[in-house]
Design goal:
The complex is a heterotrimer of chains A (320), B (370) and C (392). Chain B is of the alpha/beta class. Chain B has helices spanning 62-70, 97-103, 115-118, 125-137, 141-154, 160-163, 173-185, 203-219, 231-237, 255-260, 265-272, 341-369, and strands at 18-31, 34-47, 51-55, 78-87, 90-91, 108-111, 191-195, 223-228, 240-245, 248-254, 321-323, 330-332. In chain B, the strands form 2 sheets. Chain B has an 8-stranded mixed β-sheet, with helices on both faces. In chain B, strands 2-1-4-5 form a 4-stranded antiparallel β-sheet, covered by helices on one side. In chain B, helix 4 (125-137) packs across helix 5 (141-154), helix 5 packs across helix 7 (173-185) and helix 7 packs parallel to helix 8 (203-219). Chain C is built from 14 helices and 12 strands. In chain C, the strands form 2 sheets. An 8-stranded mixed β-sheet of chain C has the order 6-7-8-3-9-10-12-11, with helices on both faces. A 4-stranded antiparallel β-sheet of chain C has the order 2-1-4-5. In chain C, strand 7, helix 8 and strand 8 (247-252) form a beta-alpha-beta unit. Classes of the chains: A mainly alpha (320), B alpha/beta (370), C alpha/beta (392). The A-B interface holds A 22-25, 28-32, 43-44, 47, 319-320 and B 31-33, 77, 286, 288-290, 292-293, 295-296, 306.
């Protein structure tokens, strides 16, 4: 072949090629920076003010969750010996900016920071499990189609028709045993259905696009079509819905822990802290439930803003 | 849509026989990469009851012109930087949007390229036409409904009494385009703007719609502003034509002048590149290169990088729209200024051969065949 | 890369010039006397319409319904028709990008598809080496290039699939291919969105040509492009045919392009060929009432020619419920003039030869003439042309 094309390029044809190039306007430059899709997406993302704020909040929370416990002046496992015993707890002060809990008089900030660890870990890891399962199921259903597709989608229908909250509660109680990892797995196993439906429909639509047909026409294998053509083009919507899945998993975790079915109360999560605070709520120590609650709201908002920003930024149709 | 920026210094109204007068209109878009001068200083006028075509390729600004006249652009990202549009004796860019709404659909109506997306899928076509009549003409429901049936009849839709009760999805593409035209005509507009009315249709359906538009043009006294990329459609449908390139008018004149004796190099190139039987066996003549990026327009003449006749002056001096070839034909090209005089004489001979001879052959063949 | 894909290439073209059309090209001479390169027999492609809760088949779309034709080596054979006539499906079926329902396709003596004899045809895996020789160029310069891939992968992918594992070698081929379509060798790392529509179409062409095919299906390659770019691409396709000894199946709805560009043409209507013949013969002497109407519908850019055009009534019927007998009878102006003869509705007209190499599928082909068409045109009014669908 190279002989072929090369020979087409010898002598008189070199001029021909030059003329063709001129005709094609090859030296046309848009003077826009040549950006790859990620640079382009980032540029659009930056314009989304709320998304940037959300990303900032999320960044701070993740940093705090990772390094916070090491730089806190209080040790998580040691029960504090406060200078003054106030069983109802104490409101925010300089030493304890988020206040102290009732009962053991622990530092609320310490609980919130340690809680961030667990809550974010649960949110992100269960999202990862859900996305992986959902993408695999959706890809198989969408690409293979027919009978397999039918079976898988009926499974999804059944899963979606379960009252998920109760299933989570029961599963957490019987299999979770308060173990963080098991809770993550349970959440992951019960949150992939939306993603799988999304991925399936993406496969069905991308599969019909001309570039996939073009790839088939040159003899590209199915495997390469899935991994190089369909999945990269399905990526953005998956990322967007994955981000929203994080938010919903954090809320569900908080809720389940709040009801006492979730993670062992000796590991603080935002839901646990909220739950514990209930007994003392009537004594007026608002700071105890307030700060973990605020963190949940902030995180969910931040994640949703980032998701919105991603949706706009990853939309290939707009450059502006 | 919000109010456009206040247009400075509204001028004198045009004489009453001019229905639409666009003066030095500039519509720009502000996008992330900069500003796109989509329409960059165009002027034209359309007398009552007459027809005008705006021809151009994608990105020439022809559709933006139509949307600006209808005031259907989103502001921002669009901005009407400069210009006046006089319609029926009133300046419409400075008009409050409420008053504009009364004009739109009533005195001025538009037909879009894609009839399916411009009809509301949840209402019957009768509802949609009748609603428009009701709002603009302040008549009763019954009367509006009769009017809807009448206008469907006018566009040749059979058994209109039955068709009014149908939904858009129950109709074929050609039928929907007829409904769009019926809707546009329902209030007897003074100006009908048709933006690529047949581009989405098949050849035989396109023929139907073009014939229909012609008949309607004969029967009613609306003026027609036809926007298209198809020189064939223009040749059949309009009396005068404006050719746009990169946001500017590059040539204007009667359809006969522009299509038979083009004076702007762009129009010449466009006509010469249309494939037809006389060019069989030859390479087509082409306009080399691509339309310039709106962010990086050539400094002077915007067609210069693609122009086979350009010389150094074309890179320095922006050409104006000047008289070329007489009888009101104008072209934006330095060839028609004193500076290009000698070059023009050499060229025109060659160009006449290029454009006219095949056409004359064809005309002769046609005469012989008829 | 395997020997098959590299070593056996023919030398570059020796053809005298582009567009010396009607005479068989040099390839024809080499392959013997005008033997068909592609031959299609009774090809059918039906699509099921699924409906209801159980997704049962409720109807069938007869997209391609029994088509026969040959494409000779070196020629440009055009398929024209309106949307829904099956021309695109036909192109895809020949390449087995969609699996046909019935019929037979052979390419250069090799069976590509044979419904009656499934054992003799290659499996889709065995098709892969054949794909190198059978290529396709798509209509949409935006949809046909993967937006997430650089040009080097878009064009190089086929080479990889055909077994060229060496990256350097592949990149050089990609650059060669870019160059012959008029783009710069340096563009390999760019993404599709950095090119204009015409340039993207050139990339699509480079992708097909990188494999050095013999036969290329051009599916509306210029329909999505601006007028000034269309002529560039048509020129390029003609040049490449000359330089690389290509045979084209050119699918389009644009009759002016066909007239300029092709050697022979088949007019399709509702999944069938209505008329087939050499371009000059068919355009000057159309023998099917549908062809007459199609030709009359082309808007002419010459404002001095103002003829009364023959406008067809109604719309193309749905290919899921094609009319009985002659599929065109519901819109036929000739049938009306002849007083609605019975056989148009009851008998399916076969494709028959009316002049050497000129076939038409009309019972009344002999009645078709320019005079009859002009008379029919004079009698009609645009306001009545919507009536045909009245009773559907």
């Amino acid at each position: 072949m190279s002989q072929h094309l090369q020979s087409a390029l010898t002598e008189p044809l070199v001029e021909e090629v030059e003329r063709r190039a001129e005709e094609a306007g090859v030296d046309y430059e848009v003077t826009l920076e040549s950006l790859n899709q990620w640079q382009l997406a980032w540029r659009k993302f930056k314009k989304h003010r709320l998304a940037i704020i959300g990303l900032g909040i999320l960044g701070v929370l993740i940093t705090v969750a990772i390094v916070g416990p090491f730089i806190m002046p209080f040790e998580f496992n040691s029960i504090p010996k406060p200078d003054k015993i106030v069983p109802a707890g104490r409101p925010p002060s300089l030493v304890h900016p988020f206040g102290e809990t009732g009962g053991l008089q622990r530092d609320v900030l310490l609980l919130v920071v340690n809680g961030a660890r667990t809550s974010l870990f649960v949110g992100f890891s269960s999202m990862a499990i859900g996305v992986i399962i959902g993408t695999i199921v959706g890809s198989v259903a969408g690409f293979v189609g027919g009978f397999v597709d039918n079976i898988l989608m009926r499974v999804v229908d059944v899963m979606l028709s379960l009252p998920l909250l109760f299933v989570i509660l029961v599963a957490s109680r019987f299999f979770g045993n308060g173990n963080v990892f098991l809770i993550v797995v349970i959440f992951g196993l019960l949150s992939w259905m939306g993603i799988s439906r999304l991925v399936r429909s993406l496969f069905l639509s991308i599969r019909e696009q001309e570039f996939v047909e073009a790839a088939k026409a040159v003899g590209v294998t199915d495997r390469r079509i899935i991994f190089r053509h369909i999945l990269p083009n399905a990526f953005s919507p998956i990322v967007v819905s994955a981000s929203l899945l994080i938010a919903s998993n954090i809320v569900t975790e908080a809720f389940v822990s709040f009801l006492g079915f979730g993670i062992n109360p000796i590991y603080p999560t935002w839901g646990n802290v909220l739950s514990n605070s209930l007994t003392f709520l009537l004594q007026g120590n608002w700071w105890w439930p307030f700060f973990p609650g605020l963190m949940i709201i902030l995180t969910v908002l931040a994640v949703n803003f980032v998701g919105d920003g991603l949706r706009d930024a990853l939309d290939p149709r707009s450059r502006a | 849509m919000t109010e456009p920026k206040v247009v400075a210094g509204v001028g004198v109204p045009p004489p009453p026989e001019i229905l639409l007068d666009v003066r030095n209109l500039k519509t720009h878009f502000h996008v992330m990469d900069g500003t796109v001068p989509a329409v960059d200083g165009i002027s034209f006028s359309l007398p009552r009851g007459e027809t005008l075509g705006i021809v151009g390729e994608s990105g020439s600004g022809k559709s933006v012109t139509a949307l600006t006249i209808m005031r259907l652009l989103d502001i921002p990202p669009a901005e009407i930087v400069e210009g006046e549009i006089w319609f029926d004796g009133k300046e419409i860019l400075s008009m409050p949007i409420d008053r504009m709404r009364r004009i739109r659909g009533n005195d001025m109506a538009m037909i879009f390229q894609e009839p399916l997306t411009s009809l509301n899928p949840v209402f019957t076509v009768g509802d949609q036409i009748a609603e428009q009549v009701e709002t603009h003409r302040k008549v009763r429901r019954k009367e509006a409904w009769d009017r809807a049936i009448q206008s469907l009849k006018l566009v040749g839709i059979p058994s209109p009494e039955r068709r009014v009760k149908q939904y858009p999805h129950e109709m074929s593409g050609g039928m929907r385009q007829r409904v769009m035209i019926a809707m546009a005509l329902s209030c007897e507009p003074k100006l009908l703007i048709a933006d690529e009315p047949t581009t989405a249709l098949d050849v035989t359906i396109q023929a139907q719609i073009l014939e229909l538009l012609k008949e309607i043009q004969d029967r009613t006294d609306s003026a027609l502003l036809l926007i298209t990329h198809d020189l064939g459609v223009v040749a059949e449908m309009v009396e005068n034509v404006v050719v746009m390139y990169a946001g500017q008018i590059v040539e204007e004149g009667s359809v006969d002048q522009v299509l038979m004796t083009p004076r702007a190099p762009y129009t010449m190139g466009l006509l010469a590149s249309i494939p037809n039987v006389h060019k069989r066996g030859d390479r087509l003549s082409v306009i080399k290169g691509v339309v310039p990026s709106p962010f990086n327009l050539p400094p002077a003449c915007r067609f210069e990088p693609r122009c086979p006749y350009a010389w150094d002056l074309c890179r320095r001096e922006p050409p104006e729209l000047v008289a070329a070839g007489g009888r009101g034909q104008r072209a934006r090209c330095l060839l028609h200024t004193p500076a290009g005089e000698s070059r023009r004489r050499d060229l025109l001979e060659a160009v006449e051969t290029l454009v006219d001879v095949p056409a004359q052959q064809e005309a002769a063949a046609e005469a012989a065949g008829a | 890369m395997t020997d098959d894909a590299t070593g056996t290439m023919q030398p570059a073209a020796t053809a005298p010039s582009a567009g010396t059309t009607t005479a068989p090209g040099p390839a024809a001479a080499k392959n013997g006397d005008g033997a068909a390169l592609i031959s299609v027999r009774n090809l059918k492609k039906y699509f099921p319409i699924l409906g209801g809760l159980l997704r049962r088949q409720v109807a069938t779309v007869y997209a391609v319904d029994g088509v026969d034709f040959d494409v000779r080596p070196g020629e440009i054979f055009s398929l024209v028709g309106e949307s829904g006539c099956g021309k695109t499906t036909l192109g895809r079926s020949i390449l087995r990008l969609t699996e046909p329902t019935d019929g037979q396709v052979t390419f250069d003596g090799k069976t590509i598809y044979d419904h009656a004899n499934p054992g003799s045809m290659p499996s889709l895996d065995q098709m892969r080496p054949l794909r190198r020789r059978l290529q396709i160029i798509f209509q949409d310069p935006f949809g046909s290039l993967n937006p997430r891939m650089p040009v080097s992968d878009i064009i190089g992918e086929g080479l990889l699939a055909q077994g060229m594992r060496n990256r350097h070698e592949r990149d050089r081929k990609v650059e060669d291919a870019l160059e012959i379509v008029g783009l710069r060798r340096e563009y390999t790392r760019r993404y599709p969105h950095e090119f204009s529509g015409g340039q993207r179409q050139r990339i699509g062409i480079a992708r097909a040509l990188a494999l050095n095919p013999d036969f290329v299906v051009c599916d509306e390659p210029v329909s999505a492009l601006d007028v000034s770019i269309q002529s560039q691409i048509l020129n390029l396709l003609l040049d490449l045919r000359r330089d690389l000894n290509l045979t084209y199946l050119f699918i389009t709805h644009n009759l002016s392009v066909v007239q300029y560009f092709s050697d022979r043409v088949a007019v399709m209507y509702l999944g069938r060929i209505a008329e087939l013949g050499g371009v000059e013969e068919l355009y000057q002497n159309p023998r099917h009432p549908y062809t007459v109407a199609l030709l009359s519908a082309i808007p002419n850019p010459n404002p001095r020619i103002r003829r009364k055009r023959l406008v067809l009534r109604g719309d193309v019927p749905s290919p899921a419920a094609p009319p009985s007998g002659c599929r065109f009878h519901t819109r036929c102006w000739l049938r009306e003039r002849l007083g609605n003869p019975e056989n148009c509705v009851t008998q399916d007209p076969p494709l028959r030869e009316v002049a050497p190499g000129h076939m038409t599928a009309c019972h009344w082909a002999e009645e078709v003439s320019g005079g009859a068409a002009a008379e029919a045109a004079a009698q009609q009014s645009a306001l009545e042309t919507a009536t045909a669908l009245e009773d559907d």
